[in-house]
Amino acid sequence: MADEKTQIRFGILGCAEIARKVCRAIHLSPNSILHAISSRSIQKANQFAIKNSLPETVKLYGSYEELLDDPFVDAVYVPLPTSLHVKWAVLAAEKKKHVLLEKPTALDVGELDRILDACRSNGVQFMDGSMWYHHPRTTRMKEFISDPNLFGLVKTKEFSCHRYGMAMVAYGHDNGANTFDHSSSFFPPPQFFENNIRTKADLDGFGALGDAGWYCIGAILWAMNYKLPTTVTASPATIFNSNGVIMSTTVAFHWEQEGTIATFYCSFLSHETMDVAVLGSKGSFHVEDLIIPYEESSASFSFTSGAAFVNMQLGWNMKDKEVQVHNELPQEALMVKEFSRLVKGIKDSKIGPDTKWGDISRSSQVVLDAVKSSIDIGFKMVYI
């Protein structure tokens, strides 16, 4: 184990369920250590510590302010409701704490800009909690998509997600244009709709759009090298709960210059998937578990190149080959490790924060806002 003096000391603001996973990730990452937990009451902080068997060395605070005033906290993970992000992320940055912020990042891009500006002006690192970006399989997938010799012209991209049911499909045309169809959904138990913050307008007003849709938007932008679409249009088939929160919606994007069309579906009302398929003129690959891999230590996708029908179209000339990608740590621990590496570089070398992660989050937030705007104005087209 690394010397504690060289590790980045984390504090966690809030005891949300996802905080349990990140606690474990902080423990597994070799360059980080959990220093403190805070909640709105010391009783809740104690309950969280007991439930997760945290060591006695972890400090417990009954308010978020107390944790931010701890001079030994280097960085904070913020899994609070989206409506509270701007207040606590900005205050954390002003206290010189580096910010790992749960997604969706804010209620609108104006709030996110306030967070990013606070991080920039105070010289602290920002990153959102989208874990799948940090899995080495994601890098391999992008390499395959980007290799014209292996794939030729990209004809089809299909993404779907098992835990949050994602599917994106692209159909190529002779001019090289693409069409994307992407969905992200899951069907929770009945108590979710009554108690979960993602169904409350005053806590997480985006609902399924902010939770599951954030992954759809992020994956589509990732495949498009983060170029924003020209237009965004939400479908009138959008379903709301009694609080006016989005439970299900379908959205279309259009990139005018490329002639590319993308659609995605996100929902709390459908079965879970995480499929991803990318088809090109020369090859294709397929992965079933984009957002949360089936296993922690490795993940795979199937690959084929040069496949064709044979024997009067009664068979194929080859079968898919499986590409196995091993990872040293679970993807959430790899996220913490990368975040901690950046923080340590700022502390030790006095270099500036890496703005890449803020730029990625901002792109997703801009598109998310455009989708919400289209819904709010009667499902009309919104130009970005």
From TrEMBL:
Residues 8-127 form the Gfo/Idh/MocA-like oxidoreductase N-terminal domain. Residues 187-285 form the GFO/IDH/MocA-like oxidoreductase domain. SUPFAM superfamilies: Glyceraldehyde-3-phosphate dehydrogenase-like, C-terminal domain, NAD(P)-binding Rossmann-fold domains. Transmembrane segments: none annotated. One of its GO terms (molecular function) is nucleotide binding. It comes from the Eukaryota. Coiled coil: none annotated. PANTHER family: GFO_IDH_MOCA-LIKE OXIDOREDUCTASE N-TERMINAL DOMAIN-CONTAINING PROTEIN (PTHR46368:SF7), PTHR46368. Belongs to the Gfo/Idh/MocA family. This is Uncharacterized protein. The lineage of its organism: Eukaryota, Viridiplantae, Streptophyta, Embryophyta, Tracheophyta.
